[in-house]
Amino acid sequence: MEHIQSKVNYIERLGPILAGIGAIIIIIQTIWISYGVVMRYVFNKPDLFVTEATALMLVPCAFLGLTYAMQQDALPKVTIISNLLPIRLRFIITQLNQLIMLLVGGFFAYSAVSAFFRANKSGAASEVLSWPRAWFWMPTALALIIFCIVLIAKNWTSRRETSSTHTKEEK
Amino acid sequence: EELIRLSTYVNEVDIRHEGFQHFASLIAEKTEGRVRMEIFPSATLNGWSEGIDAVLGGVADVSHISYDDRLPCYRAGAFYPASVNLENQIELDEEMTEILSEEAAKAGLVNIFSSNYSYDQEWWFQKENVNLNKLNGLQVRSIGPLVSEMIEGWGGSPVFVSPKEVFQSAERGVVDGINMGVATYSSWKLWTVMPHMINADLFYGNVMYMMNKNKFDSLSAADQQAILDASRETQKWLKPRYEAWVNESVGDAVMKGGGSARSLTEEERDMLLASIQPFWDKELTNTCGKETADKIRALLAKHRQ
Amino acid sequence: MEWYHVGGGLLTLLMVLISLGVPLPFALAAASLPFLWLIQDFSTSLISVELKIWGVWVDYILLAVPLFVFLGELIARSTIGPNLYRFMHRGVRVRGSAAYGSIGACAGFGAVCGSSMVGSLTIGSVALPEMLKLGYGKRLSAGVLAAGGTLSVLIPPSLILLFYGIVVDVSIGDLFIAGILPGITLTTMFAIVVVVWGIINPESIPRVDNALRMPLFEIMAAVLPILVIGLVITVSIYAGIATPTEAAAIAALLTLIIAVAVGNLRWEGLKSALLATMRTMGYLGLLLSAGTLFGFVLTYHQVPQQFTEAFLTLALEPYMVLAMVIAFYLVVGMFLEPVSITFITLPTLFPLISSVGYDLVWFGIIYTITMEIAVLTPPVGLNLYVIQGLAPKEIALKDVILGVLPFIGALAILIALLLLFPQMALYLPELAS
Ligand code: NA
Ligand code: NA
Question: How far is CA B148 from the centre of its chain?
Answer without folding.
Answer: 17
